[in-house]
Amino acid sequence: MSAKREMKLRRMPMPKQPPEKRIRNFEEVALGYMPEQAIAEAKRCLQCPKPFCKLGCPVWIDIPAFIDAIKQQNFDKAAEILRDKNNLPAITGRVCPQEDQCEKVCVLSKAGDPIAIGALERFVADYELKRGLKIPSVAKKTGKRVAVVGSGPAGLTVAGDLAKLGHDATIFEALHIPGGVLVYGIPEFRLPKEIVRAEVNYVKSLGVKIETNMIIGRITTIDELFENGFDAAFIGTGAGSPRFMGILGESLNGIYSANEFLVRAVLMKAYRFPEFDTPLKVGKRVGVIGGGNVAMDAARTALRLGSENVTVVYRRSETELPARLEEVKNAKEEGIEFRMLTNPVRFLGNDAGWVQKMECLRMQLGPPDESGRRRPIPIEDSNFTIEVDTAIVAIGQEPNPLIRQTTSNLQTDEEGYIIVDENFSTSKKGVWAGGDIVPGEATVIQAMGAGKRAAQDIDRYLRDQA
Amino acid sequence: MRIDDKGERIPLTISKSNPEEGTITVVCQEVGKTTRQLGMLREGDEVLDLVGPLGRPSEILKFGTVVIVGGGVGTAEAYPEACALKKAGNKIITIIGARSKDLLILEKEMEEVSDQIYIATDDGSKGHHGFVTDILVRLIEAHVKIDRVVAIGPTAMMRRVADITRPHQIKTTVSLNPIMLDATGMCGVCRVVVGGETKFACSDGPAFDAHLVDFNLLTARQRIYLEEEKSSLQKFEKRGQNLR
Fold this sequence. Notes:
The complex is a heterodimer of chains A (466) and B (244). Chain A is of the alpha/beta class and 466 residues long. Chain A is 34% helix and 17% strand. Chain A has helices at 3-9, 19-22, 35-43, 52-55, 63-71, 75-85, 89-95, 117-131, 153-164, 181-184, 193-205, 222-227, 258-267, 293-304, 325-333, 402-406, 444-465, and strands at residues 145-149, 168-172, 209-211, 232-235, 240-242, 255-257, 285-289, 309-313, 337-339, 342-349, 355-368, 374-378, 384-387, 390-393, 397-399, 431-433. Chain A has a five-stranded parallel beta sheet. Chain A has a five-stranded parallel beta sheet with strand order 6-14-7-8-9. In chain A, strands 10, 11, 12 and 13 form a four-stranded antiparallel beta sheet that branches. In chain A, strand 11 and strand 12 form a beta hairpin. In chain A, helix 5 runs antiparallel to helix 6, helix 5 packs across helix 8 and helix 6 packs across helix 8 (117-131). In chain A, 51% of the residues are buried. Chain B is α/β, with parallel strands linked by helices. A seven-stranded mixed beta sheet of chain B has the order 6-5-4-3-7-8-11, with helices on both faces. In chain B, strands 1-2 form a two-stranded antiparallel sheet. In chain B, a hairpin with a 2-residue loop joins strand 9 (191-194) and strand 10. In chain B, helix 4 (132-141) packs parallel to helix 5 (155-165). The mean pLDDT of chain B is 93. Chain A binds chain B through residues 174-176, 184, 212-215, 218-219, 240-242, 244, 246, 250-254, 256-257, 259-260, 263-264, 267-269, 273-279, 281, 352-353, 400-402, and chain B through 2, 6-9, 33-34, 48-54, 181-182, 184-189, 191, 193, 198, 200, 203, 216-217, 220-221, 223-225, 228-229, 231-232, 235.
């Protein structure tokens, strides 16, 4: 194979902090392309007449067009194309599972590596942030007011899009900083908070108002928001309530929900204790239960906080790991151990109530379950123990009940998720919902896709009303 | 409440509110760095973040005779409950206590809202020399008809109240104070076991049936960050001395 053809097949590698260095800091792992690297990568794009990548994007970015602009070295134009559809490109360029979306359907992947669409998106977005954001022109004010509950990816997207369409959007955020999972969940080394701040400021520059420390369902309710003059509402509160396994010893000291662990480390910056007031106790031997992105984030955070040994325990096999491939790879490079087909059955502690051991069962895979993945089946009498002084339970979340308990005529399913139609409209007139509070798993970008679709539907609804 | 941009989120109880003036009254004891900082604030100073009220409202019904037991700073939380229960038509017997008389709070306010009031101090500087629970035992032994007990104070006190009322089957509620972080139901650090079920004190509580609470677990979990709490306070005080 010629060197030139070889180059065409292989993507430009993402520059990264070396593992031995990055496990000692919280700085970003991936460093981003230099301009010449981005241009070289963009040149690999075939500019397909019928681009599949575009169909794979939940927020409908004109991917071939922005890549072509990079190739032409017109980064301003590339940025404009991205912003046209995506309010948060510096975020999605970092955390989107591109390998399951746009990059999965890239024609190049048949013979070699798909175009590094995510890395290129990040390059353009970072260029734009460095240059300074231009405030786009927004449509004429309609005088319609929309309440958005939650300032995570779904809420920021729906509010930003509605503002662009001329509506008055106010986001109510329960925590003290806007961003939702982007600020309390995804660690600094994967998504610097400075980037989130910049993207939130962009959304604000569109005219969106953000009120922090506002818990809808306690301080006021959705119904009261309508009484106070809002014409529509979007619920993007996230799932919110941590799931535990319900096994013996789960409340021993040293056992965290992933939410607690990450809220301390990421939102409250416990890694800088005592400069920051919130502490986080991490031991030498950490067990992380679960196989998603949150489990990877927790494991890698524990490592950076000084743990000597971090083991991820997952009940299915590596093929079924729901985490992004890239993050599993990063975790392995950093020395995180993986124990697949393993499921904890109880925790054992010392007299003072601190966890010491995690008793597990080995599993084998049976026929596929309702999720389509092979079902894990315990192997009898295969019990063994892993010594841990810290355990992090990262097996997902359940919906926080506050909104459903305090909102009239809002239909939820038996698990408490809000039921929506294809436009993310709920059973309650004038109310939409999206992200982790509706059934089905949602990534950052899927939540944004929901926000986008909902914004269009809300716009239609408000204009019909006028 | 979060005092500044490096501060932790701490749970505090609103003991009075005045919607017309837009004010709330919060009482806290200076035990750690943040509460020490709060104690240093002067009139007109600001805190960065405040969110609430959170948690479930207390159950306020006409029970008959209610004994309110308030220990230490817990009295601040017991006070609004005593007022509401009084307004609902209950006879209120209050027992408040502290380590010594200087640490007694809201004595006058409590007296005004109560039909009877008893005071206990650990050092005997005022009222009964001993614990609030001694008085509760005495009331029960004297066959005072008690329909309900509400106990708010240190965990050891609430546990003792639960132990006293359990054999007499007097329905008792306690207001639990585990470690909290976001206090919106998101993190689960405040999990407590009540009647064998895991509950979040921040969103399911703070009030629970005292006879069903696993106090051993609560006590152990309250100790998780003792070392850090101590070192943070020491560092803060040292810095204060250096500045002086």
